[in-house]
Design a protein that fits this description.
- It is built from no helices and 7 strands.
- With about 130 residues, the protein is mainly beta.
- It has a domain at about 45-120: Immunoglobulin-like (Sandwich), CATH 2.60.40.1120.
- Strands 3-2-5-6 form a 4-stranded antiparallel beta sheet, with no helix packed on it.
- The model has no long low-confidence stretch (mean pLDDT about 85).
């Protein structure tokens, strides 16, 4: 934590300085020090994608590809989960693939009344 109650700043003191010598300084971030959360300038929609196989099992390292409102691909984690934050009024469309399964398309609208949205994408058979 910074000095004087500031947040997200680091104050460094008593570090040895020598000409032409590097010094490794470790800085540890303390998330408890900055609990104040500043709201975004516009409403957002945080989307958690869950990519599943036909049996309902998670598809590790699946790929989620958006075509709307932006073009972007991102990898799911080992449990088939991926997340992104978009504008609350976004129309979200794209596809998911992975595990050698048939890709699946998705489309839905984010709503300001639902700032956190969970979307399950069921991939087809082989």
């Amino acid at each position: 934590m910074g000095s004087g109650g500031t947040c997200n700043q680091v104050v460094v003191r008593d570090v040895p300085v020598a000409w032409n010598r590097t010094y490794l300084l470790r800085v540890t971030y303390d998330p408890e020090a900055c609990r104040e959360r500043v709201p975004p300038p516009e409403p957002t929609c945080e989307i958690l994608f869950r990519v599943r196989s036909p049996t309902g099992a998670p598809v590790p390292e699946a790929v989620v590809s958006l075509t709307s409102p932006i073009t972007k691909s991102f990898d799911a984690d080992g449990f088939g989960r991926a997340d992104i934050v978009l504008r609350a009024t976004s129309h979200v469309a794209g596809s998911a693939s992975g595990g050698g399964l048939k890709p699946a398309n998705f489309a839905f609208d984010c709503s300001p009344q639902e700032p956190e949205h969970e979307q399950t994408i069921n991939l087809g058979g082989r």
